[in-house]
Write a structure and sequence with these properties.
The protein is α/β, with parallel strands linked by helices. The protein is 34% helix and 18% strand. The protein is built from 12 helices and 14 strands. Strand 3 and strand 4 form a beta hairpin. Helix 9 crosses helix 11. The longest helix has 16 residues. The two termini are 15 Å apart.
């Protein structure tokens, strides 16, 4: 099959996840392209890459270059407007959603869906249920794969009492930082909180980050350390050196890429709810087996203290189940499920 994938965010290619930090959605785009090529398809990936390149059998081309002369399948990424880049009724169209599906009901996007009639692919059932369609479209839920670096990652015997945060600083970090500083660190002075944030690491004090930047800086004496997010090999190693992953519920987040990656690495998680419903994150962990959804602040603190305790028995039990249950979803699995979308039409 001649498969064309198209995205209009920013420049990256199939080699980028292994060389620098990249957003979860962009990594998924790159990794699916490579997985489809590995299965024998001719894959062209179009985005804002500056120069044409071939990576893992995928031809990456800049967005402003002519479209491939032959495409059997087009996978438009996140943006329904990209469907119009291939105005051929013979092409099988797929719209791969990542963010809120409510945008599909905007009038301009309704017209595009009516015209191109794509199969709409969601990353989880919660995202799929969030779309209230005006008519029946071809729909599928395909859970993204996990990069090999996380699937093969293994923790050592003596994992230090480190907790990790990977989400944007404005998403629950202030609340979790307060609990850490006031109630977790005073009980366990050896525990460390590692915050992976590019903005905080470079000292970005933009107006909307000034307050949280000051809070983090003031918490240095509570073993709070800011680190720069890394490429997949680096982040897999970081997860293996940590006892748990603090992850807040984020409005309009339907997957949780770094949570999926830490789970595949064998790192238990504690979901910080705050005043929010858990929603899609309930699909990312097995509550009580690979982590916990903390119902309130007291539970969050108690669970963190148990997982960071000098006696690692609770951590070891959860870590074992986490690795066993969460490290089986690779990109080949996902590619096969994408193939099924057009194989059904051919049949």
């Amino acid at each position: 099959m001649n498969i064309t994938m198209i995205d209009k965010s920013y420049a990256f290619d199939g080699a980028t996840p292994g060389t620098r930090a990249l957003g979860g959605a962009e990594k998924a785009f790159a990794q699916l392209a490579s997985a489809l090529a590995a299965r024998g398809h001719d894959v062209t990936a179009i985005n804002n890459v500056e120069y044409q390149a071939s990576v893992d059998g995928v031809l990456w081309v800049p967005f402003d270059t002519p479209r491939p002369p032959e495409s059997d399948v087009v996978i438009a990424f996140r943006n329904p407007e990209l469907l119009a880049e291939f105005d051929d009724p013979e092409i099988r169209s797929i719209l791969w959603m990542w963010g809120t599906p409510k945008i599909l009901n905007q009038p301009v996007n309704q017209k595009l869906l009516e015209k191109y009639d794509p199969a709409v692919v969601f990353v989880g059932e919660a995202q799929r249920r969030a779309w209230k369609s005006w008519r029946d479209f071809k729909e599928a839920t395909i859970q993204p794969g996990i990069a090999e670096d996380y699937l093969v990652a293994k923790s050592g015997e003596d994992v230090p009492p480190i907790a990790i945060v990977t989400t944007h600083p404005l998403h629950g970090l202030s609340e979790m930082l307060t609990l850490w500083r006031d109630r977790i660190h005073p009980v366990n002075k050896k525990a460390e909180l590692h915050i992976y944030s590019a903005s905080l690491f470079v000292g970005n004090a933009a107006d909307r980050l000034k307050d949280i930047y000051k809070e983090v800086a003031a918490a240095g004496d509570a073993n709070v350390i800011v680190k720069s997010p890394g490429a997949d090999p680096e982040m897999a190693a970081a997860y293996c050196r940590a006892r748990l992953h603090f992850y807040p519920v984020i409005a309009n987040e339907y997957y949780g890429s770094t949570l999926a990656e830490s789970q595949a690495s064998g790192t238990p998680a504690i979901i910080y709810r705050g005043d929010n419903e858990v929603g899609p994150l309930a699909e990312r962990i097995a509550n009580g087996q690979t982590g916990h959804i903390a119902p309130d602040d007291d539970a969050f603190v108690n669970l963190a203290l148990q997982l960071l305790a000098e006696d690692p028995v609770m951590y070891q039990s959860l870590a074992r189940d986490t690795k066993t249950l969460q490290a089986s979803r690779n990109w080949q699995n996902a590619a096969i499920e994408f193939e099924a979308l057009w194989k059904k039409e051919i049949a």
